[in-house]
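hiii, so i know i said id send this last week but things got crazy w the move. better late than never?? heres the sequnce for the chain we talked about at the cafe, plus the structure i predicted for it. fair warning i was half asleep when i ran it
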Amino acid sequence: MTTLPSRAPCTLLLALLASVTALSGCTVGPDYRGAPDIPGSQGNAFVRAPTAGLATTPAPSPWWTTLHDPQLNALIDAALAHNPNLQAAQARLRQSREQLLQQRTKALPNLSVDAAAVRVREPDLSLLQSSNNTQGGQGTNPSSGRGPLQLYTAAFDASWELDLFGGVRRATEASSAQAQAVEADFADVQVSLAAEVAQAYIGLRDQQQRLVLANQSSELAQKTLELVQQRRARGVAADADVERQTTQVENTRATLIPLDEQITESLDQLAVLTGQAPGALDQELSKPAALPVLPAAVPVDDPASLLRQRPDIRAAERRLASSNAQIGQHTADLFPKVTLMGFLGTTGVNPADLAKKSAFTWLGVPYLQWNVFDFGRTHSSIRQAEAGRDEAAATYTQTVLAALQDANNALSRYGHQRDSVTRLQQIEASANRSERLMHQRYGAGASSLIDLMDTQRTQFTAQQNLIEGQADLLKDLVSLQKSLGLGWQ
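okay and structure toks below
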């Protein structure tokens, strides 16, 4: 029996490993150099930022804690824990991570194990021959049947595609970037959800406060109508005065209906956002409460920090990196692929025979595959990947520009609404002073009760406008935090 020298397999193996090591560093396709620079995205400040009310410091991670409203904090925490849309985004994130894990395993060898135990009974050919002889007029020669045959086998199959030109590595790079993009999408859902809960909660408190003032104004208008009716009965007032005041009463009462409807809608919206059925928060939130406290200064960083923390920008950048890696993935198809295949098996008629050296058989095959003539399909795939990369780059640029526009618009709205609230505060202060002066005049007998009630109604209107303005300012603050990409965990 002829055997190979003992060093030959080792020498061949070492040579093969050396070749694989030398070629494994070759990765075709363009390396990712980062996202393109966007003009204006690396500035020191936003161009539409107001001159007051801002602080050039990093914002806290849970920005809603700066509003000092425990009920709002609890609602946002509940939404982040139970909102179905967020749970769906989290499931998509888990899927992308498992896809990345599957892609990484493609760089590893595949190993399979097969085992079988076969028991077969063959037909007794002598009986068949005897039967034929009997039909031909010859005598029979019966013989006993043969026993069943048994066969046991076990085998190991292995295959490993050598990533000589980096096609698998580029595919893993693309999957990794895609998984990071989905992770940024998940963060973007968190940002939007926190902002939506805050907007709905501020709207609820605004509507409740204005409804309280509208009820007070309605009661005041009703009392004024009763006084006018009394004056009409004494002949001091005309019918036109009664009708004018009746119109005022009905107009005031008419404002109660939409406010009550808006409160119901806000309660249901908050319930659904927190993963509950409509009406689940009625008992908890139906009691009117004050608006959250506006912070003295809003922390706002520079545009460069916006690019680092805003999830949609990070998602667009990661998808650009994934598209770039796909070019190399398709470029690797231009080159040959080498797969190492091996087989190790053992066979015997008894289980004990499987361990015998003579029962073993093995096979090792290096398999080369090179699709030389594909009539341009591979080059077409490369050009398609390059076009996808260019599209992702344009999408990234548009995302950054839209984010900068969003942030600047939010800053502009916040600044203008802050000025508007300052004016509304001045109007309310003037209405309060007017009510105090009219109350003094009424106490001194210099003015009538109707005049005092008219002044009080104006005061209620000023208070309602101020509350609505403060709520709009808080909503603009929430929009600003969302535009800066804050609120994800």
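btw Residues 1-10, 139-144 have pLDDT under 50 and may be disordered. thought thatd interest u
miss u guys!!
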